[in-house]
Batch of 3 targets.
Target 1
Amino acid sequence: MPQLSESTADAATRDRYRRKYEHELFERVLPFWERHSPDRKHGGYFNCLDRDGAVYDTTKYIWLLGRQAWMFSKLYRAVEQKPEWLEMARLGIDFLRKHAARSDGRVYFTLTADGKPVYQQRKIFTECFYVMALAEYARATDDARLSREAEKSLEKIFSWAYDWTKVGREAFEGVPPSQILAVPMILLNLIEEVAGEDYHLYQIEMDECFQRVKLHVHADTQKVYETVAPDGSRLDGSTGRLLNPGHAIEAGWFLQHWARRLQRDDLRQLALDMVRWSYRNGWDDEHGGLYYFLDAEGYSPLPLDWSMKLWWPHCEALYAHLLDYTLTGEASDWAAFEQVDRYIFDHFVDPDHGEWYGYLDRESHVTHRFKGGPYKGCFHVPRTLWLCWDLLGNWPDSES
Amino acid sequence: MPQLSESTADAATRDRYRRKYEHELFERVLPFWERHSPDRKHGGYFNCLDRDGAVYDTTKYIWLLGRQAWMFSKLYRAVEQKPEWLEMARLGIDFLRKHAARSDGRVYFTLTADGKPVYQQRKIFTECFYVMALAEYARATDDARLSREAEKSLEKIFSWAYDWTKVGREAFEGVPPSQILAVPMILLNLIEEVAGEDYHLYQIEMDECFQRVKLHVHADTQKVYETVAPDGSRLDGSTGRLLNPGHAIEAGWFLQHWARRLQRDDLRQLALDMVRWSYRNGWDDEHGGLYYFLDAEGYSPLPLDWSMKLWWPHCEALYAHLLDYTLTGEASDWAAFEQVDRYIFDHFVDPDHGEWYGYLDRESHVTHRFKGGPYKGCFHVPRTLWLCWDLLGNWPDSES
């Protein structure tokens, strides 16, 4: 059980956090990517950036190119219409459309610096991040044709989402029918991003996602299982026992956004449970921080890196707890927010070069000095800082 | 640079090690697998075994089923014709032939407990371990038909080895032509296992392997690169800089077996360089043990688990140094052997339940309590103990 403080979120405290995140986001995180990531020669961004921003590998990881193009489009729309932010987004979008997107709707996972394909995943996530970027950039540039393109691409993703043989996976007889949390979770976020105010058009798809997410959340054990049977029952073996606390917390706030918008109390409670249970199960009382993976019954998780502390679960937990606190006003949600904030600023932040480290060992020592890598780019850190900064600046009521 | 002791390998010392390994192999390692791994219901072996041998997942990982069937066949032939060892081998072979081997020569990577396919890798290694098992079991049972089958399967592996589009990989324009050490390395071992005394029949294939292995060993930096261009030059980026010390050391002793057998001084020196350089580069002076991965130029390696200490590189280093010492008589080779022995018995060995732990963090704490998992089975530990025990008992000369 995490050790939580007793302080409260009065206006002065909130303002202190808001100013801290503002400084971190606009002075230390965004400048890192603005300075070091653009590839002015071939377009797009480099995302393998060393501690000081030096490019240590020129491979372009398309998850991260899509996410960075989304981030700068979002900042342009939601924070300030800075031309250089739109230009940064355009640099990514043009490269993605020219090189990453295939004519059949699939999107390559990796490209060379000059845009030649290197690898194609047999999953749907690269496509998801590409569509997110397209939709937000279309809105930033008020481009109706591009919006339509994003909507059509989302339709394709829906058609693949629950049957990956359509994206090249072989179906083997011995694989038990199952579903992973990652899919309905990312779709909920994608609908939010693509649909905007027209979300009613996606009612059927949203309801299916709510239904599916719910199957992963088990009240009897207070755990969120990453993979379950189609009816929500637990699967045998290591796969069935695997917990990914950061993932469940992220899914929690995706869902909480919908609960808030649709004023659905059932979803609100489900999302709260997901975040609180996963945080409680995932926190390491001895060394602090959230584990990457756990086994629900205490066996050793199979992933070799299970006990590492990664930056992104902490990003998700920071915003999720802050958001929950605006809804519940409960001290324990605020205390969890402050606990994560403290862990982040004690361990992930790099005062010398900006951006955050991504990977710590169980004892919270930095294991990888780079700021960007195959799965870390200009996304989780600026997204969470922006979300928290925005929420702190638009506090829903004035009870304190 | 590893801190090495000055002791020497006199007959009494060698005998002490031989007795220690004999006890470890026959009293603590083999009984663990004999007791806990057999699946008497469906055949084959369970390989996901917890610290005490309890099955925590019933998935059958075919790399490890092949390797275990090989190990028991080998023990039967090379150590003692115990009927229970042959029976143990047969349990694996029958299951593999019935369920894992496909009619086109491909072999599934994972099966359910009752033999239904779960996953097929787009690589050649499952096939290699299957053929190893087949060849050794054929020899143990004096089955000429099965020997022919192993030889024919090896031919198929040769035909796929350097073009993985033949096993289902897509070829993308942006992937630079390259070769990985793993392929010529495993083929050298496989020829040794399949050919036996008829190795002259594989002269062309062996020469190609020698040629290819050599391209990974760079005298200018004293490093063994895991992936190089077809002409042996270094590739850009993280892939080109990746070092896998345990792998290079294992390849070193595979090659040293051939150097000894063919009395090739050039190969002898190449193999010595591979082992010594990789050990020196891979040893962690601060916490002891061999790193899993390193970056040749000091960047952070991309794998999240790069700084972990895995059991198998230490198994390879134990035997490789002992073997090298029989050839060189140099104190530094003996000292390295003793250093690895000490690290293993300080950290990997489990006096309570037998077998060894597989995974330690950088500071040498056990991170995974299980004894068997997706990549750890009845193979590296008994193989190295048997090889060392055998070498210590058949010491090539009596200079000390």
Note: The interface with chain A takes residues 48, 50, 56-59, 108, 110-112, 115-120, 170, 172-175, 236-238, 299-302, 304-308, 359, 361-363, 367-370, 373-374 of chain B (CB under 8 Å).
Target 2
Amino acid sequence: MDTTKLGFDTINLGHGSGGTMTRDLLDKIIFKTFNNPYLNQKHDGSIVKFTGDFAISTDSFVISPIFFKGGNIGELAVNGTVNDVAMCGAIPKYLSLAFIVEEGLSTDDFTKIVNSVKMAADKSGVLIITGDTKVVERGKGDKIFINTTGFGEVHPKANISSNNILVGDKIIVSGFIAQHGMAIMSEREGLEFESTIVSDTTNVNFLVKELLDKFGNKIHLFRDPTRGGLASVLSEITTDINKGITIIENKIPLEKQVAAACEILGLDPMYVANEGVFIAIVSADVADAVVKTMKNSEKGKNTVCIGEVTSEHPNKVVMQSLIGGKRIVSPLIGEQLPRIC
Amino acid sequence: MDTTKLGFDTINLGHGSGGTMTRDLLDKIIFKTFNNPYLNQKHDGSIVKFTGDFAISTDSFVISPIFFKGGNIGELAVNGTVNDVAMCGAIPKYLSLAFIVEEGLSTDDFTKIVNSVKMAADKSGVLIITGDTKVVERGKGDKIFINTTGFGEVHPKANISSNNILVGDKIIVSGFIAQHGMAIMSEREGLEFESTIVSDTTNVNFLVKELLDKFGNKIHLFRDPTRGGLASVLSEITTDINKGITIIENKIPLEKQVAAACEILGLDPMYVANEGVFIAIVSADVADAVVKTMKNSEKGKNTVCIGEVTSEHPNKVVMQSLIGGKRIVSPLIGEQLPRIC
């Protein structure tokens, strides 16, 4: 889109007024980009036909910087919510999309972000069906915040619940950890590592669907280790199940340059956010087949089984080190990396 | 809730980390307040059973100040989305709730807002089923922004669409206009009017349901004149219908003190935001009965029929003045009152 033709270089307060400037912004950028019969109703909301069990998830994205290596806030806002819906064992279908723009954001940047939303939505197979745009004064926001709320149809074979987790279940991780957090961090700190670290933001919904098609209720839980990283999510799971989790340190999938970057910045990769990685906790009898299926997929080619559920040390995650030592993995307490998503 | 027992006086970045501080905030305030089986799943999303046509609407609330005469951002965020869902001819059922908090917001204020969300949700008969909390650094937000996304079941008798509007249809307004905008404005400007102007924020979903129960598809359109006010919403409707709208100036329901405040501040009440007022465009043969039903309701006791749909002046709203003059009512262009909702 040639933004010089839009007639405005920046988003300003008038674009959030609900008057003709808002309509102009919507017509020239939003409706033009997403053009679908739901959004084209241009009403206060959209009407959709539903039958069955639906999963609903909401997330606001406040990441800084808004453009980073491997993506931007637009595609992150789609992938994040699509993945959250998928983690419920559902097939994402629709998204709502709400912007809070800081006055002065360039129309160019806004358009790039909207286009990324569209591209990511298309890749995930979801439609943007309703939205909202608000503008706040300079200094009262930070360029752009995006909320997406996603709706998905629960997979007919899915039965995802921490209540289903059994002793002996395997803990499988779909790819290298800590990439998203370290990409953002190196961007912020202006660090240049030997080769560039790129965010792993991507949609995992089709791989999740394939696993549910094949393994149904043998998949006991899905979770995506975003804020707080792998350590926090595993810890949170153990608090819910009255069982323990043991993971093997040298199985944790971690790229060398990400490990090096973490060391330089004094961060533990176990607590660093991921965006395109998920954890599956599955029945032991299908674990090898699950890993094989995941490794065959682009989104899961670096899948590893990192541990299992134990009757020992209930409510605790224990990491077994290379030389046989054991340590408890605590959840993240405060903030390691603010505004990572 | 005695916030001194929470152990933290302000919301800080750690509360948005996804770690134990986030969990603490959620357990002590959010889950405790909303306590329902959907939210208690504590998963990335909630699973809900749906059948039929559903209306979905999203809105981010960025109002400043966050506390104002007649309400606060919490109840506004519920009522606003509940009403948007109702305007689609639907019965609101569920809401998602996403906070973007600026570091340093007092726990007291946050708790008050959360309690107002709960109170407003109860009054509207909706459940908060999933949520999100993000925290941004001081100066990168403005106290608190809230996104709510609402889901409602389309009323079996509803057929709400601007395509159904006929020449002769009556334009009915449910109450005094411009109250919300002027309440916010006087708060901001520190003005004290003779008697206090109070925001009209409220939920209108039960009145909307009653109208649909009684008059079904004789109700052709509902709209709530929020941002941009009555003038902008009527203008927007005429752009969609290839017919005109004539309204009678002295029928517009406007309280004297609101009119006076508008005059002092140089604002046209037709462009000032409302939050608890809605417009119904209905078949002429039921118009009197609709007005009567609305007047019998607390939420519609000041209902007035202000005009009708005409074949003349298509795509234009014309206001007929007391002494017989006519003028075109244009939509709002830029921004009269930023951050009014």
Note: The mean pLDDT of chain B is 93.
Target 3
Amino acid sequence: MEAREILTRFKKNEITLEEAEHYFRKEPFEKMGGYAKLDSHREVRSGFPEVIFCSGKADEHFVHIFQKLYEDNGEVFGTRASRHQYELVKDLLPGVEYDDLSHIIKIEKKHKEHIGKIAVCTAGTADIPVAEEAAQTAEYFGTRVERIFDVGVSGIHRLFSRLEVIQEANCVVAVAGMEGALASVLGGLVDKPVIAVPTSVGYGASMHGLSALLTMINSCANGIAVVNIDNGYGAGYIATQINRLAVRENQEQ
Amino acid sequence: MEAREILTRFKKNEITLEEAEHYFRKEPFEKMGGYAKLDSHREVRSGFPEVIFCSGKADEHFVHIFQKLYEDNGEVFGTRASRHQYELVKDLLPGVEYDDLSHIIKIEKKHKEHIGKIAVCTAGTADIPVAEEAAQTAEYFGTRVERIFDVGVSGIHRLFSRLEVIQEANCVVAVAGMEGALASVLGGLVDKPVIAVPTSVGYGASMHGLSALLTMINSCANGIAVVNIDNGYGAGYIATQINRLAVRENQEQ
Amino acid sequence: MEAREILTRFKKNEITLEEAEHYFRKEPFEKMGGYAKLDSHREVRSGFPEVIFCSGKADEHFVHIFQKLYEDNGEVFGTRASRHQYELVKDLLPGVEYDDLSHIIKIEKKHKEHIGKIAVCTAGTADIPVAEEAAQTAEYFGTRVERIFDVGVSGIHRLFSRLEVIQEANCVVAVAGMEGALASVLGGLVDKPVIAVPTSVGYGASMHGLSALLTMINSCANGIAVVNIDNGYGAGYIATQINRLAVRENQEQ
Amino acid sequence: MEAREILTRFKKNEITLEEAEHYFRKEPFEKMGGYAKLDSHREVRSGFPEVIFCSGKADEHFVHIFQKLYEDNGEVFGTRASRHQYELVKDLLPGVEYDDLSHIIKIEKKHKEHIGKIAVCTAGTADIPVAEEAAQTAEYFGTRVERIFDVGVSGIHRLFSRLEVIQEANCVVAVAGMEGALASVLGGLVDKPVIAVPTSVGYGASMHGLSALLTMINSCANGIAVVNIDNGYGAGYIATQINRLAVRENQEQ
Amino acid sequence: MEAREILTRFKKNEITLEEAEHYFRKEPFEKMGGYAKLDSHREVRSGFPEVIFCSGKADEHFVHIFQKLYEDNGEVFGTRASRHQYELVKDLLPGVEYDDLSHIIKIEKKHKEHIGKIAVCTAGTADIPVAEEAAQTAEYFGTRVERIFDVGVSGIHRLFSRLEVIQEANCVVAVAGMEGALASVLGGLVDKPVIAVPTSVGYGASMHGLSALLTMINSCANGIAVVNIDNGYGAGYIATQINRLAVRENQEQ
Amino acid sequence: MEAREILTRFKKNEITLEEAEHYFRKEPFEKMGGYAKLDSHREVRSGFPEVIFCSGKADEHFVHIFQKLYEDNGEVFGTRASRHQYELVKDLLPGVEYDDLSHIIKIEKKHKEHIGKIAVCTAGTADIPVAEEAAQTAEYFGTRVERIFDVGVSGIHRLFSRLEVIQEANCVVAVAGMEGALASVLGGLVDKPVIAVPTSVGYGASMHGLSALLTMINSCANGIAVVNIDNGYGAGYIATQINRLAVRENQEQ
Amino acid sequence: MEAREILTRFKKNEITLEEAEHYFRKEPFEKMGGYAKLDSHREVRSGFPEVIFCSGKADEHFVHIFQKLYEDNGEVFGTRASRHQYELVKDLLPGVEYDDLSHIIKIEKKHKEHIGKIAVCTAGTADIPVAEEAAQTAEYFGTRVERIFDVGVSGIHRLFSRLEVIQEANCVVAVAGMEGALASVLGGLVDKPVIAVPTSVGYGASMHGLSALLTMINSCANGIAVVNIDNGYGAGYIATQINRLAVRENQEQ
Amino acid sequence: MEAREILTRFKKNEITLEEAEHYFRKEPFEKMGGYAKLDSHREVRSGFPEVIFCSGKADEHFVHIFQKLYEDNGEVFGTRASRHQYELVKDLLPGVEYDDLSHIIKIEKKHKEHIGKIAVCTAGTADIPVAEEAAQTAEYFGTRVERIFDVGVSGIHRLFSRLEVIQEANCVVAVAGMEGALASVLGGLVDKPVIAVPTSVGYGASMHGLSALLTMINSCANGIAVVNIDNGYGAGYIATQINRLAVRENQEQ
């Protein structure tokens, strides 16, 4: 609703002073004991519900937020959760699922529809936890996901054998550690955006993923953009945004 | 065409041995005196014609490639061109245009249609050259572009006054140097992908754009992915890919 | 007292040779068994009593220093204390308080007056431990503190809803990890000094707070200065210095 | 004016719909041909007029902005100006002054009052250009400045001989390159905030000021906060904010 | 000759005291006016004649050394030479050749035999100067070189079209800037050693070749080792060593 | 077999459509439950069987892959294995050997022939684990290895006493941490390729091996190429490639 | 003995062939089971006995080397030893002493004379472990050591009160973490060499001592040279070398 | 003179109030127009006259300081001078000498005695400018200097042929760029302190000397301390301090 509309309706007494004031001074979030401000307008604003970055949260805070979001939305999704955090809520909210590989904790509505398609590729098997975070994030947000794992450039025929599937996706997520060359090769082979996720897989001069990040940022291929090291969630999120654009009702050009 | 089709048609003598062999051994590029291999299949493969990264090219090579691409496509587009390079070709190919701000050199077909919409935002005026590279790249590839410049976070009301325009875009390109905080703020305000472009604008600990790159990679906001420092071209390219997904014929979900 | 006064009074026999000599050769600190030199003149010189940086101190040294400072001042304040260190002194000095969140250990005089006002803001909930170190440090030194937590730039309306409170403060402490953009946004919205505290919250390319530090140092906004990563104590200290300047008896201009 | 007041006055027809709408949708800046948005509300909001960061501005833009700000405020101040930029405006606006040392260009009102006091100290003579940027910035904003140059720690008696003057200041700006140790020593000797400015003076492992920046950020002394390398302007700005707090009408505590 | 042999022959008066002493105290280099020590035994010891790293040499020294090596060996080879240095010697030694692309200056014996085969590959055309330094170095040392330029991973079909030629080489030199992914892809496709040469081609976060270096060092493929950024000479040298091993008279196993 | 041959034979009905199609679409790897793609054509393509990088593999995956490779090849080799991983397979496959020093786990065929010779040198005793990984890798691949440990440059006579042995090798692996100077000294003393392996041995500014890596990359000596920090496996692999070239049937030149 | 003398005496049969050969081929070290080469000529060559860097040594190797050096020299000295290593030898060699603070393990001859004087200064109490390593190393090598701890620049009067003692030393060791400014201040106050030891004490941007190292390397004061982070042993060693030069029999000039 | 003596003599009227006050408040430096404070007590305090770091000084300041120091001391010494600066003073002070290699400008007293001995070694010829700065600095301060150039580790026999000369020195200055391994090798061969000077000679990953600095700081050899990159002056200074200790009248032990 536009400011002008609010003002006009207020003048006409269709809304009260309090309602009009609220519009301009509103606090679209819920305070939780001072330590957090849940963003309850987020789904309206961005099309995505708020999720929980579980790592580092105090036990009490985690449980409180997890329950509150579940109550509000009928489902809830947390990343980087520990098994300990799972133990905290599994008896309170029986439908909680925890995945040891991706460290995702969630209660998800049944029979969720998944639309469009993205491809999530990894260079090696050690990159799979990050790839699963990306894939499950995208799925939670309603995206259909194709997983193509262990197709790194040191044996490039493995990638070519799956190329057709990859080329059908609206967005490709390229997850790779060590030297991270997978993103460049993919960028040259598809005509859709590639979201590159460097991982901390590697040793020595990989510097916990910084080398892979630099590789991806400097890619000679086009159509590549990069998210933070190990940030599967961020990749799944932006891939979902792109996928939604591709499948929504056609815009006028 | 699929391998099976080729083989079948070859068996039926619909195509010759040479044609079949060519399919499997084809070199979809043109060699130019050994120094370059123009990617003549690129437009088919990726939907984008080949462009020229002019910086560092020898004069002779630059002129040769520029002419060749113009002959093939009826238009040609080069980034990071110097005025000297413009002098080299302006008499050979009279329609050449050169832009001192963005360092783009091009001959562009008339009456090109621009579809969809992306927004290109800058934090300051010094970021405009990179933003123009992004905007003009996207326009060359057929994208409608909205420019919103000088809306950095140090005077955040300037950004809010243009927010509606930004929110209508299919993709937002956020161009910022110094501390690069613009991308995070935009990420929290729009529901479309934000492509962040760090620039080398700044001094001291900005380290020629590395600080802005780190800011953007570490963003606490969602829906942000990052390209290389000053890489306006890369941002315009991926924004065009995203915009095309949004305006193409609706997929089945 | 000036050197000339000392000399004059010494000449007049108002002070003895020993007293005069003491003035010029004084050791304004107390040696503690060779391993430390407590700065007993500090409060006179700087207006702040000596505090203890507890981390890494040997048990015996910690207990000894903690007791000595309590005896001298009737109160004592330590940062980065472990629960183990609390156990060491809690029975010796019954009034000891320990805060698990900020890792502050202290015995504080009752009914301390708090003057002026500073605002301590955080981007997220994970930044609260550092913010509490800043806030409690400032309070121990007699400053009134307003806490505004979880107002990071990814949901910037949360910040705007508290802006008036922030703008009333004499100094704003901005505590943020990840990309640390909060400081820049605050710098553009208030007319008082902003002390920026990068935190080690984040992962991947946040490099344990170095990215946030670089963001803050490169801020495009004015009126921002930065302290070390996670250095809540340092921020609380300098904010107190600024607050004291604002509330002291008015200087002649 | 508060939102509630606006709404009430609008309801009473004391202000028109357009005026009320304007309040909520106002653009408190002037657009200059699309390339810049001068922040005409800045002085009201922050107490400081807008200044020009001249480096990198196109000639036409520089001249335009310089003139516009002069017309609006009757004075104008630019940092990091080149002699070339001075040549551009010196005939248009005859009162323009340019300082080769600090690279400041300005037209300043006569008989400006300077209040309070800050001290600007340098470690060596090579740090003076940055120190002058800080000092002249503060003076332009109405601060009285004491300059204490060439008092670095390698001959520490030079610092002690000026200590009383430094201790009288409301804020100390410590400008140092190479290893930057001056800030730590000053922090231990004064009871007012020290704003540390690392400079790019040095060679080899000084890494263009990064080493001095790290020294200052890690200082073992209290009451120190740091701005960007060579950012004299930023130091002069925040020192002025602190000085103003010290000399304004006394707050109630 | 072994120490024992020398001693025995000396005892038998087959060699003189001076000869024996010379053996143990020999200075297998020629002093040139104190500023350099030409390694005249180098060819015996390593199988490679001494070459000149021309960059940074004083004019007088460069001319002197160039002439001396030519006199001793009948040919001479210098890397990173400037056109100015070429001017200095072209009239003194008429057979001198200078290559503007690779910055190599040389007088080379006619009809030199080239044995075995190495492949020198580049990702882009901008990498060719470094590749030529590698290729011409190897050729000077008697290696047959196959050049395969502009086969970077962003259009990987260009590489596959030349793969058979590459696979026949005894050693592959992979020259690439930007993200440097070519080395990894080659490592997965050939069964011979790959010597990777990062180049300073790129911009932004390429950090003058450091990113490409990190990519190559962290390669997930086997059989790759890396030399310094832009070190074509070093790659040509070690590739020659490997090629010589492959073509020399067969060892007993 | 060449594409032309396949096509000709297919036309002549010597091979079926499926066989021909398979040639062009083949997947030369075995999928293992989606999480890995074993490269079963690797030995044919590269002359080396696939080995296991054990670190970070899930227990179930590790056991599965270890067994599969053993079944296929009659032997199996894993690097960076933990004692825990050894416990997992030692009862399943009784011939498994585990080496606590090099962290290698393997089942190796008896009476393997070792050909040629490489030398593996270390600077100190703390570098031995990495050196053993290199040596045992090379031995597994059929290379004869000479170990020369603890010959670092701080007592350079130790190196000279073993120089003749080193000079007889076809390739020298130089393993060193701290400042990594061993590689440079070796490079000047032998006429064969030196593969330098920086190790993470050291403290302080060694930065976990980065300093040694930089030393080796910048070596002033010729004939040196570098692998990743602690990458003994990579060094043993490429040294084996070089050694094989030296001992194979003599090529025509 | 000179080579010429050896040869002459050998010719005269004053020494045998074996003795002469031994001179030229000698191995001045003892091999210990292949894993180490104890440098038994070290004391003759350098004036210092070999010491043990205990960290990372296998138990068996540590015990073996510790015993061997004790047997050879009647005393033995190890740095960076763990309490576990002390347990290993304390019953075998009853005179062993272990210091938890400096992590030094040793058996030292009684009544060792200490000559000359060096001063070992620390900035804080947390730097004492490194300072003790320096001091005890120097004492083991026969140097008289003055300890001056906790005299950092944040309370510089503590340093001045001990300045006379420091100025009497032949060499000053300056041990400091955090910003490491102590070295610069000392360098300006004494006329003897200052050996600066950065420590890993600090947090945040101290980067485990790298910041302090950079501060010390960039010092604006003269007469300062730097050793590795936490390298107390190295500082004690070179300080002893300098002290010995100062107290030895006077050279002719 | 001690404080007590001053006070006693003052009481006895042997010195006036002004004299006594002067003692405690003295300014042992001369102010030069506010921009510099020449340290006229330096020679007394440190045994070294003040020298000029010419780089970056304004012309007027340079000339003024150069003349003032010449007048005070009868000689003057400046480092990092440009030929332009030489032009400025060569006519004013006819005895001025300028050395294009070391960039030293000086007027030196005739027949200066040089005592003791230091050795200045370089790895290559490109390191000579830094080595000459070290050597000429030491000579200006009265040290006898032996130059041993171009003895880098890639041809280590060159070093061994000069070893005896090096071993006779009281202090060895090791000047090396690229990988900087010379310092480690020298540290293992001499029993005197080695002052290591990394140089910016190199390219690629040498990072302007940072790699050589890291090599030297991490040296596995003992008796090495490091100064800043290209800091020949600093090395010559501390080497002179050490040499003076070695040749002065013998201390009592």
Note: Chain F touches chain A at residues 25-29, 34-37, 39, 41-42, 55-57, 61, 198, 200, 208-210, 213, 228-231 (CB under 8 Å).
